[in-house]
Amino acid sequence: MGDTSKKKYKTGLVLSGGGTRGFAHLGALKALEEHGIKPDIIAGVSAGSIVGALYADGENAEEALKALTSQRLFGFLEFIMPRNSLVKMTGFEKTLRNKLKARKFEDLEIPLVIFAVNINSAELIQFDKGDLVSAIMASSSIPVVFPPVKIGGQYYLDGGIINNFPVDMIREDCETVIGINVNPIGEFKKIGSLKAIAERSFHITLRNQANSKKDLCDIYIEPEGLDQYGLLDVSRAQEIFDLGYKEAKQVLKDKGN
Question: For the chain, what is the radius of gyration of the CA atoms?
Answer without folding.
Answer: 17
